[in-house]
Amino acid sequence: MRLRVPRCLIDARLQDLPPADDEGLVTVQLQLEAGVVRRLQAAPAEAGAAAPLAITPPVDAHAHLDKTFSHGDFPNPGGTMAGALAANRLEFAARTAEQVQQRSERALQQAWRHGLRAIRSHIDSGAGPASEASWEVLSDQQRAWGGRVALQLVALVPIHHWLTPEGETLARRVAGSGGLLGGVLGPPFGHGLQDAGAVRALLQLAERLGCGVDLHVDEGDDAPGVGMALMARETLALRPGVPITCSHASSMGLLSAPAGERLAEQCARAGLRVVALPRTNLWLLGRRAEQTPWLRAQAPIRMLQRAGVEVAVAGDNVQDPWYPGGDYDPIDLVRLCFTTSHLNPGQRQGLTPFTTAAARIMDLSWDGVLRPGCPADLLVLAAGSWAEVLARPPARRVMRSGTWLEPLPESPFAGALPRVTCHE
Ligand SMILES: [Zn+2]
After folding, report:
1. 3-state secondary structure 58-118
2. Ligand 1: distance of its center to the CA of 69 in Å?
3. Are 73 and 29 contained in the same domain?
4. How far apart are the CA of 398 and the centre of ligand 1, in A?
């Protein structure tokens, strides 16, 4: 099978490959056997021109499968944070297990067919029957989808909940099932000592139970970087032995360059991982009545990467009160971030947030790098270059364990499916 593959998704130790072109791509020939890659070598020169662009299946490290596709019944026409929270509360009060089943099944089917191989979903876990129902359904989905879309679950509660006896009980259950402890850390912020105490208690609890933490931090456009600074400080002080992830980190992007760089270096020293969520941020933040937004709060992805922080970019909300669009399509997100976040997928730092860095943040067993013995899992695009991917949404084919999935219906916008040259 001849494909054009980003060099950063091929094992750096594999030599005898041609140099990457201007978009970081090399044309290779893959030999597959029994669901794994057997050999990977340079393709004969004459075959290179027509080969389609392929990547390993991307990873979505931040989603909300419990509330997804609820936008129709619980819209947020003003597009504000306050409106989203109010609609989310109404939706949560009415949420049933059947709804979570239907929503999550639709989401996982879309994700699978679009080429995603793993999703980390936060679950509203405050008081009320919807919390219990959501955990039961999504734990079942985790088992049902194992081997197709790896699903990780995070308990999303107000951060002070972890200080209560109910919080401790919830944490034990979550940790016992391999989940993560989550929550929201400003803005707005409580008194500094209150928030610091809650963060410290959460980190100690996670350390004691041996489970990871993934918080929504600084999802706002004021108090720039306050939550990230707090996370870095407390993590450096406690040095927990479990992975700590900060999702959003949006307002950090509003700091001055020197202040942002200092904080990014602190985050790197603390070993914090960051999941940037530009799509929801660009939708909700910086919104002012009757104004075109001029404050564009999103995580300073490149600055964090330069400091040595592992950064993923994820989809976050899909068709819920927080964002009305999206469809679990990682290529759609790559195309968006090309423009909004200047993440050029032709460069290593532009592509790894969707692939290898996201896999490391989720601690997946495969990093998404092609090498002999790795899964024969591929997302093949009807495009020969990243410029073509930017030009129009490309049709795609998805291979898992050496078998092609049923292709998505051809879109009139996407054109024909990619043509893959295979030899028996
Ligand atoms: Zn979220």
Report:
1. CEEEEECCCCCCCCCCCCCCCCCHHHHHHHHHHHHHHCCHHHHHHHHHHHHHHHHHHCCCE
2. 14
3. no
4. 27
In a domain, 79, yes or no: yes
Whether 11 and 87 map to the same domain: the answer is no
Count of domains forming the chain:
2
Distance 316 CA to ligand 1 centre (A): 5
377 assigned to some structural domain: yes
- Assess whether pLDDT exceeds 60 at residue 146: yes
pLDDT in tens, 10-31: 999 998 999 999 999 999 999 9
* CA of 247 relative to ligand 1 center, distance in Å: 7
Residues in the 5 Å CB sphere of ion ligand 1: 316
Residue with the two structure tokens 């998805």: 398
Residue-range definition of the domain harbouring residue 15: 2-56+369-404
pLDDT at residue 414, as a whole number = 58
- Compute the radius of gyration of the chain from its Cα atoms: 21
Residue 383 lies in a domain: yes
- Per-residue confidence band for 191, with pLDDT thresholds at 50, 70 and 90: low
For residue 121, report the distance from its CA to the centre of ligand 1, in Å: 8
Which residues are CB-contacts of 260 (< 8 A; sequence separation ≥ 6)? 225, 252, 253, 300, 303
CB under 8 Å to 279, separation ≥6 — which residues? 315, 316, 323, 326, 333, 336, 340
Considering the domain architecture, whether residues 66 and 50 belong to the same structural domain is answered as no
pLDDT, one tens digit per residue, over 357-403 is: 999 999 999 999 999 999 999 999 999 999 999 999 999 999 999 99
- Tell me the mean pLDDT in the region 347-352: 98
Average confidence (pLDDT) over 279-283: 97
Q: Are residues 63 and 128 in the same domain?
A: yes
Tokens of 127: 């008081």
152 is a domain residue: yes
How far apart CA 420 and CA 364 sit, in angstroms, is 28
Q: Looking at residue 115, which CATH number applies to its domain?
A: 3.20.20.140
* Per-residue model confidence as pLDDT tens digits over 31-85: 999 999 999 999 987 654 679 999 999 999 999 999 999 999 999 999 999 999 9
Does this model's pTM top 0.90? My answer is: yes
